[in-house]
Amino acid sequence: MLYLKILKEKYSMIIGYVGIILIGLGITLLLPLLILPAYPQEIDTAKYFLISAVITVAIGFIASRRLKAEKTTNLTFQEGGIIVILSWFITALLSTLPFILAGMLNFTQATFETVSGWTTTGLSVVDVTEAPNTFLLWRSIMQFFGGAGISVVMVSAIIGPNGQGLYNAEGRTDKLLPNVRKSTKLIMTIYSGYVISATLLYILAGMHWFDAINHAIAALSTGGFSTRTDSIGAYNSPLIEALTIVFMLLGTTNFGVHFLLLKGEFKSVLRNGEVRILGFLLALTIPVVAIGALLPLYGTLTKSFRITAFELISALSTTGFSTVGYQAWATSAVFIMIVLMIIGGGVGSTAGGLKLYRVYLLFKSLWWELKGYLLPSKSVRQNYVWRSEGKYYVEQSHIIQTANFAMIYMLTYAIGVLIFLFYGYPLKESMFEFASSLSTVGLSMGITSPDAPIGILWTQIIGMMLGRLEFIVIFFASIKLMKDIRFMFLAKRKTSS
Asked: What is the dihedral of CA 162, 168, 173, 175, to 10 degrees?
């Protein structure tokens, strides 16, 4: 039973890596306590994070002992997927402990909040006017590491160049440097640098330092958690809104494009397909919504464009910040918001959604197909798109894979909307709310609340997880996991008999 032995060794390695991630999570649970010197009145909340950290580190330490450094091998895509799925689900569950121990949220509500945090969605059931600052910071910390990819960040430092399977399983294609460790280090440097810069700029714009930290993290992670009930709208500041727009666009841009910017390759940035379609969509939809749908509501062209630009960029970037409510918006404007949320941000960014690259590729493939009818039958074509790594020649199998992903995504979206309809919610609100969940956006028309039905909250939880981890990863990893468990069970049963 050589295969059984190899399988057991592989799963020992998988459990070991998950353990490493949990140790990292335990340390992360202590980070909210750093603000206690500024808020000494919240010292009582420390025990909830300390207890949670001890439990998490203990579980992680026990699991990590299964890992034998001398036997580590390259991770396949499926094995990386299993680590990603296990680590994300266990991380989300253990992250609920502070909320539950403090009696702030029940299990469903706490799971919703932590999944929303780690997936950088931003939908919330927490009353930010009552929650201690340590808990508000914990929500932002989850978004920071969730945006970067918790599995990649915490394991790549140890697994090094052998972790391409894990890297791809996180939904990342932005291999900026020769190996995973160096790529991850560069991503974290860019990401952290943006967050620090955004925090300082928010403070200079008049934000309180604590609000600045939280909103900077939420903007760059395209997460959308806010310390204010009215989100960015609470400040009523054109400067803060303008800064937030810049940060949201940075967060939704592929890290590969940021790398090109740092190298000064501006022509390559402008050629990039995702950058082009991002600009095209915003240039098309903002005037249409501002003039055609919202001008009668807001009275002046200036105010209409200011609100429209912010809300549509928030939707397309999947950030989820808002300055106004949408109940009075025309149905046409809400529909455009839904379409932009479904499209989402860039591949290899902190954003969610179907992703700009996939939409761009599908439109290009349609154009190539139409153009093909006008060319001689024996002509040879080499279709390509511009990505962050340069010119990429597209094979038919890549287009089919992209189309299949889009079909699965839209089918999942339709199922989610039907569940909302079965609970009695109107069609417009149902489409908006589940698009916000599945694309990890965070905007809401009022359905998401602590009093929402349990079935609705769990539908959104599943949607947020599927949207963040991507369907193909979950599909292949789940199949491999079930096959391996079945094989080990049958082998054990055969041995015992």
From this structure: -10
Q: Which pLDDT score, from 0 to 100, does residue 281 have?
A: 96
Beta-carbon contacts of 29 under 8 Å, excluding residues fewer than 6 positions away, are 49, 52, 53, 56, 95, 98, 138
222 in Cβ contact with 349 (< 8 Å): yes
Q: Please calculate the CA angle 134-249-110 and round it to the nearest 5 degrees.
A: 30
Contacts of 363 (CB under 8 A, 6+ apart): 277
H/E stretch holding 446 = none
pTM here? 0.90
Give the number of other CB atoms < 10 A from CB of residue 252.
Answer: 26
Nearest to 152 by CA among 172, 135, 133, 137: 172
- DSSP secondary structure string for all residues of 368-403: HHHHHTTS-TT-----EEEETTEEEEPPHHHHHHHH
CA distances, 353 to each of 281, 317, 463 (Å): 15, 9, 11
Residue 24: name the closest of 96, 68, 76, 87 by CA: 87
Helix (H) or strand (E) holding 133: helix 133-148
Distance CA(347)–CA(304), nearest Å, equals 30
The better pLDDT of the pair 383, 235 is held by: 235
Exposed / middle / buried, residue 395 (Cβ in 10 Å: 0-12, 13-18, 19+): exposed
Is beta strand 390-393 parallel, antiparallel or unpaired with respect to 384-387? antiparallel
| Structure-token pair, residue 452 | 């929402």
Say what percent of the chain tops pLDDT 90. 60
d(CA 494, CA 497): 5
Q: Can you list the pairs that 40-47 forms with residues at least 24 positions away whose Cβ atoms lie under 8 Å? A: 42/132, 42/133, 42/134, 45/98, 45/102, 45/132, 45/134, 45/135, 46/134, 47/101
16-54 CB burial, b ≥16 within 10 A, e <16: bbbbbbbbbbbebbebbbebbeeeeebeebeebbeebbe
Non-local (6+) Cβ contacts of 112 within 8 A are: 123, 125, 457, 460, 461
- Give the CB-side neighbour count of residue 489, counting CA atoms within 13 A: 6
Average pLDDT over every residue of 456-468: 94
